[in-house]
From TrEMBL, chain A:
A single GO cellular-component term on record: plasma membrane
Endpoints of the signal sequence: none
Keywords from the named record: Cell membrane, Membrane, Transmembrane, Transmembrane helix
Domain of life, per lineage: Bacteria
Record's keyword annotation contains Membrane: yes
Origin species: Roseivivax isoporae LMG 25204
Subcellular location: Cell membrane
Name of the protein described by the UniProt record: Branched-chain amino acid ABC transporter permease
Automatic annotation (TrEMBL), chain B:
InterPro entries attached to this UniProt entry: AAA+_ATPase (IPR003593), ABC_AA/LPS_Transport (IPR051120), ABC_transporter-like_ATP-bd (IPR003439), ABC_transptr_urea_ATP-bd_UrtD (IPR017781), P-loop_NTPase (IPR027417)
One annotated GO molecular function: ATP binding
Classification of source organism: Bacteria, Pseudomonadati, Pseudomonadota, Alphaproteobacteria, Rhodobacterales
Keyword Disulfide bond (UniProt): no
Protein name: Urea ABC transporter ATP-binding protein
Record Pfam families: ABC_tran
Keyword Glycosyltransferase: no
Length: 402, 246
């Protein structure tokens, strides 16, 4: 089976080899494990980029392979981040609170400790009690389960309602935007139970590893992100190959025809959408401890649109295309917006890249869509012996056939 | 001969236009039946109703020995119950290879988890090879379906119908765009299929229908105008007036 999988996806060994070499290189140059050429913050940026690559391939499977243009995928990513963030905040605050109460003349009761933790965490939004959704926050195992369950269930319910009503195309995209917008608006409220617009912070401080320097934690998370990306790549390559891949691509190109072959199209869409959401949640759970903070702006509609832009620029309908797009554009983005790119003084006007980067991104998106619909990944077709299956703009054709 | 499919009193209208008007129809298994009629007679709508794409306003559509109502089933359930359809315009998955197109149609469990676990077997490869030989696409299995000629796409879609192994085949204008030799081959194939299956052929071409040599149903304005052998219906005064006489 492994042999069939690799024959159908020749990119797997290449991808894994390049990823392994990249990890080795970063490890050798990092502060904690190598010569220290790369700063800890840059290792974190690279680790975060790997997580973005993972959510990008999840997006690509849904959009590039199955034809569902989800513009709400970062909601699942953010929910994964919130789920792990709750445990990180709770556990770390618990350690601090018990430490400071240990010297009190009368030993504190568990209820007093609980109240003190709640006051610490929710003081910023004027609350001092744990909302119901924090019920499992004291257990790492249960919160890890939430990382998978919360995005998975949201996708399952949302997908079931949307696909069952045969909402497709641009209408579905608008619904997914509405979903992520609704989530962001809810999270912005102070009484949402997740600290409103403050979000969850201090996530880079891992409980029980307080004495471990960030340089070591950063490289550990970098490796964990790389492992997750590798596993995610192989998993999705398996899903989009063989008969399953045929059906999924068939749904993208002509949903009605697949139905007349006897396949329950809604069931397949729901499967792909939910699996993709779960992987997005895992990617988010690895991303936010490296970012250190999560707030509701992370699930704003624009974030999911960026994700679609990355996949489009990288080349949808091919997994490595999504990886290239996410890595290339997000790194370029932090270079431009982080002041890395030199501003251009035109005499009468100075082009500041922090302002102009979005214009550049928009222009390159338009250029890719018009002149290179296969994206950057399409370049690989020029060297590959067998042309990869194209992400034909077949939706319009299918609609015309109806 | 027990009937496999039975429609009775079926009517459907779109925006006030009665596409199907109190239509009754039945077909047994095995049987070959041709449906003819002028444009707008309701031939395609008839197929849409049977395959679940269109829901009738009134009437019954019963299927099989247990007389299951098809009106309660979804398109995919109807297809799994054993009704296969070939569209008028060849509709194949153009971005995929001929082999993938046929494999997707092959009779096999259809649930997402079943499909995920499914890997090619020798039996399925043999079946695909046999169908490819039948439809004359043996050398084209690795080709992308979008590269095929119009006639080859017609054949591929017929092959997909064979792979599904349905009990009832609904075939919409199978001979359109085919050469005379290919037409003869199609006629043979349909006749052979009708030895074991129920086959409904919608066709405009009278010569083609004549060569099928089967019972003919003439549709007009959404209901059955005449039924019987081709010679019988072509002698019918009403049929001559509305269809042949023009």
């Amino acid at each position: 089976m492994t042999r069939t999988l690799i024959r159908e996806n020749p990119s797997i060994p290449w991808f894994l080899a390049i990823l392994a070499a990249f990890c080795l290189g970063v490890t050798l140059m990092a502060e904690a494990t190598g010569v220290g050429m790369l700063s800890t913050s840059f290792v974190k940026t690279l680790g975060k980029t790997l997580c973005l690559c993972l959510v990008a391939i999840a997006m690509d499977v849904v959009w590039g392979y199955c034809g569902i243009l989800s513009l709400g995928h970062m909601a699942f990513f953010g929910l994964g981040g919130y789920a792990i963030g709750m445990w990180l905040m709770y556990a770390r605050t618990e350690i601090i609170v018990t430490g400071s109460l240990a010297n009190a003349p009368i030993p504190p009761t568990p209820a007093e400790i609980e109240d003190a933790i709640a006051t610490q965490i929710f003081g910023v939004v004027g609350a001092n009690e744990f909302p119901l959704i924090w019920a499992f926050a004291d257990s790492l195992a249960l919160q890890l389960l939430m990382v998978v369950l919360v995005p998975g269930l949201l996708a399952l319910v949302f997908g079931w309602l949307a696909f069952r009503s045969r909402v497709t195309g641009v209408y579905l995209s608008i619904l997914t935007q509405a979903m992520t917008l609704a989530l962001a608006l809810y999270l912005f409220q102070n009484d949402s139970g997740l600290r409103g617009n403050n979000g969850l912070s201090g996530l880079q401080n891992i409980p029980f590893f307080r004495d471990t320097p960030q340089s070591v934690i950063s490289i550990a998370f970098f490796w964990a992100s790389a492992l997750a990306l590798a596993l995610g790549y192989v998993l999705f390559a398996w899903v989009v190959s063989g008969r399953m891949g045929s059906v999924i691509r068939g749904i993208r190109d002509n949903e009605a025809r697949v139905r007349f072959l006897g396949y329950h199209v809604e069931g397949f869409k729901l499967f792909v959408f939910t699996l993709s959401a779960v992987v997005a949640g895992i990617a988010g759970a690895l991303y936010y401890p490296q970012a250190g903070i999560i707030n509701p702006a992370e699930v704003a509609p624009i974030a999911s649109i960026y994700l679609a832009v990355w996949v489009a620029i990288g080349g949808r309908g091919r997994l490595y295309g999504a990886v290239i797009g996410a890595a290339f554009v997000s790194l370029l983005s932090s270079w431009f917006t982080g002041g890395g790119a030199p501003d251009i003084d035109l005499g009468v006007y100075e082009i500041r890249w922090t302002d102009w980067w979005l214009v550049l991104l928009g222009l390159s998106f338009v250029a890719v869509t018009l002149f290179a619909p296969k994206g950057i990944g399409g370049l690989f077709d020029l060297v590959a012996r067998r042309p990869a299956p194209t992400a034909a703009p077949a939706r319009t054709r299918a609609e015309a056939a109806e | 001969m027990a009937s496999l499919l039975e429609l009775s009193g079926v009517s459907v209208s779109f925006d006030g236009f009665r596409a199907i008007n109190n239509l009754s129809f039945q077909i047994g298994e095995p049987e070959l039946r041709a449906i003819i009629g002028p444009n707008g007679a309701g031939k395609t709508t008839f197929m849409d109703i049977v395959t679940g794409k269109t829901r009738p306003d009134t009437g019954r559509v019963l299927w099989g020995e247990k007389s299951v109502s098809l009106l309660k089933l979804s398109e995919s359930q109807i297809a799994r119950a054993g009704i296969g359809r070939k569209f008028q315009k060849p509709t194949v998955f153009e971005a995929q290879t001929v082999r993938e197109n046929l494999a997707m149609a092959l009779k096999a469990p259809r649930g997402p988890l079943d499909v995920l676990r499914l890997r090619p077997t020798q039996a399925s490869a043999d079946r695909i090879a046999a169908i490819a030989a039948e439809i004359g696409l043996s050398d084209d299995l690795p080709r992308i379906a979008g590269e095929l000629s119009h006639g080859q796409k017609q054949w591929l879609e017929i092959g997909m119908l064979l792979a599904q192994d349905p009990r009832l085949l609904l075939v919409d204008e199978p001979a359109a765009g085919m050469t005379p030799a290919e037409r003869a081959h199609t006629t043979d194939l349909l006749k052979r299929l009708a030895e074991r299956h129920a086959v409904v052929v919608v066709e405009h071409d009278m010569d083609f229908v004549r060569r099928l040599g089967c019972k003919v149903t003439v549709l007009h304005e959404g209901s059955v105008l005449a039924e019987g052998s081709l010679d019988h219906v072509t002698a019918n005064r009403d049929v001559i007036d509305v269809y042949l006489g023009r």
